[in-house]
């Protein structure tokens, strides 16, 4: 009888340790930009490894911003959106720069007042392209982030009302005719 009471007591004691609330699993995605440290070492001397770490900080900052922006590719358009639930063009640029501790205005026409204007043949990755699409006010109302550039073909990531966050080329007729200016923030 004592043994039965002891077993019941232990069962009651261990059974009451569980919480009635169920825990929700939280998953998060950590995005780490590629860096010189991630590159394989191919030299034979330590000096070569140190030289490989000497990188242009504006170029690496640009690649970090581009990598961050690319995670939103395919996200639907949402006016005023700044998350994977929906994104607009200036929200994409604003959030991508903010993730690298660079604060820009939230609206594309105000972003176009920051940084320095650059000619198209000098555009680099991380620069911003500004457009006047068919709007009544005839003001800048669209922005894209340059992800690859060479003199003949500039590709940029941006959010469109029809297709969401996509990569386009400045050689496309619509974007070529709507283009206003390029600006460098970095």
TrEMBL record:
A GO MF label: cysteine-type peptidase activity
Domain NlpC/P60 positions: 59-186
UniProt KW Transmembrane keyword: no
InterPro entries for the chain: Murein_DD/LD_carboxypeptidase (IPR052062), NLP_P60_dom (IPR000064), Papain-like_cys_pep_sf (IPR038765)
Keywords, sorted A to Z: Hydrolase, Protease, Signal, Thiol protease
Biological process according to GO: proteolysis
Pfam families from the UniProt entry: NLPC_P60 (PF00877)
Domain of life: Bacteria
Family: Belongs to the peptidase C40 family.
Designated name of the protein: C40 family peptidase
């Amino acid at each position: 009888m004592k043994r039965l009471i002891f077993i019941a007591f232990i069962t009651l004691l261990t059974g009451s340790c569980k919480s009635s609330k169920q825990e929700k699993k939280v998953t998060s995605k950590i995005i780490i930009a590629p860096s010189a440290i991630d590159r394989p070492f191919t030299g034979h001397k330590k000096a070569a490894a140190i030289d490989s770490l000497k990188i242009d900080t504006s170029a690496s900052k640009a690649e970090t911003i581009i990598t961050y922006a690319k995670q939103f590719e395919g996200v639907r358009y949402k006016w005023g959106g700044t998350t994977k639930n929906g994104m607009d063009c200036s929200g994409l640029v604003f959030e991508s720069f903010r993730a690298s501790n660079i604060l820009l205005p939230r609206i594309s026409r105000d972003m176009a007042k920051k940084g320095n204007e650059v000619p198209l043949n000098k555009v680099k990755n991380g620069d911003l392209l500004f457009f006047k699409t068919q709007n009544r006010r005839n003001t800048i109302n669209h922005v894209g982030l340059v992800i690859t550039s060479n003199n003949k073909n500039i590709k940029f990531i941006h959010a469109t009302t029809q297709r969401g966050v996509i990569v386009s080329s400045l050689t496309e007729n619509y974007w070529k005719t709507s283009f206003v200016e390029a600006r460098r923030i970095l």
